[in-house]
Write a structure and sequence with these properties.
By secondary structure, the protein is α/β, with parallel strands linked by helices. Helices cover 46% and strands 21% of the residues. Helix 2 (56-75) runs parallel beside helix 4 (99-110), helix 6 crosses helix 13 (285-305) and helix 8 crosses helix 13 (285-305). The radius of gyration is 19 Å and the shape is globular.
């Protein structure tokens, strides 16, 4: 057994997972036993789409949390070295010309070198994490349909689309997400013109993604991350965030699209009343739901054209964070 720490720093949220990694005697893979999870909305990507730089206040907010995570790792006896801890930074840091200010601060706080990963590596890690939660691996979900799954990791700055069965066969990172679409189109609210422009942008990006990933080949559509778990909670009619209800939830496409539409056109007071929606996500959730609705609609159309229309989505709360943790063991750390 090996105790590891995984940190995922995205455009909107930074998260920590401390887990004990154990070999799975049935699959030859790795299982995780979570010890601690933290999630903090820091909006590191504030303004990056417009300025190309990480904002000074956003940097300080995020590095303050990184220092807290370092203390947590010390308390939970996780060695902060390359064999036991991995810090992955994604879209906002990738896009920022002053990223070294952030990575240097992370190195000073944690003692490990943070990785600014490519969209392809982000997609690979997301796919690996999704397998822990929704089968399609030896010993996994026996009810999963045969054929490849399409895993969608919808973040604040980018959206990863990965097709595969037990490993990625094709992947594409779309330069769009809840924060980016909000800042570009919906900062002043969801007006008809703003919504049309946002949807047109997402559809054009999906056209480009379809050249790399065959959406029509998917036999399962698996959604990851905060926007999709929020849509799922809304569709299920939850009062608060319920991990057990959301993780693995299978929802009809009509139900998903109806919830997306309700969220896109929701009022501030409605969003405030949803106990499953964190305050730091309220101002970007409409954009996230818009992106998810466009992805669902496109995959629905392409699978129908291929002769096997999808009828549902599946939500996984195992995602890139779990994939980062597994990668530490898969890279050679003895169990």
């Amino acid at each position: 057994m090996t105790r590891v720490a995984a940190i995922d720093c995205g455009t909107n949220t930074i998260r920590l997972l401390v887990a004990d990694a154990l070999p799975d005697p049935h699959t030859g893979g790795v299982n995780l036993r979570p010890v601690h999870r933290s999630s903090t909305i820091v909006r590191l990507g504030q303004g990056v789409d417009r300025t190309g730089r990480l904002d000074a206040e956003a940097l300080e907010r995020t590095l303050r949390v990184v220092r807290e995570y370092a203390d947590t790792c010390a308390t939970l006896n996780v060695p902060l070295d390359a064999d036991h801890a991995r810090f992955v930074a994604t879209s906002a840091t990738r896009d920022a010309e002053n990223r070294e200010e952030f990575t240097g601060g992370v190195h000073a706080a944690l003692g490990i070198v943070p990785e600014v990963v490519s969209g392809q590596e982000e997609a690979r890690l997301s796919f690996a994490g999704s397998l822990l939660g929704t089968g399609d691996r030896p010993g996994g979900d026996d009810d999963a349909p045969p054929g490849p799954r399409l895993v969608v990791d919808l973040g604040g700055g980018s959206t990863e689309l990965v097709l595969g069965v037990t490993a990625p066969q094709a992947a594409y990172s779309m330069n769009t997400g809840s924060v980016r679409i909000t800042e570009r189109h919906l900062a002043d609210g969801v007006t008809p013109d703003a919504e049309r422009a946002a949807r047109a942008e997402v559809r054009a990006l999906l056209d480009r993604a379809a050249d790399a990933v065959d959406f029509g080949a998917a036999t399962r559509l698996v959604g990851l991350a905060g926007t999709i778990s929020t849509v799922t909670a809304h569709a299920l009619g939850l009062d608060v965030f319920d991990h057990d209800a959301i993780d693995g939830a299978e929802l009809s496409l009509d139900r998903v699209l109806a919830s997306c539409d309700a969220i896109v056109h929701s009022t501030a007071s409605e969003r405030k009343s949803w106990g499953y929606l964190l305050p730091g996500r309220r101002d970007v959730i409409a954009a996230g739901a818009l992106v998810w609705s466009e992805v669902v609609a496109r995959v629905t159309a392409d699978t129908a054209a291929a002769g096997h229309p999808l009828t549902a989505t599946v939500t996984s709360l195992s995602d890139i964070l779990d994939g980062i943790a597994v990668s530490l063991v898969a890279a050679g750390e003895p169990t």
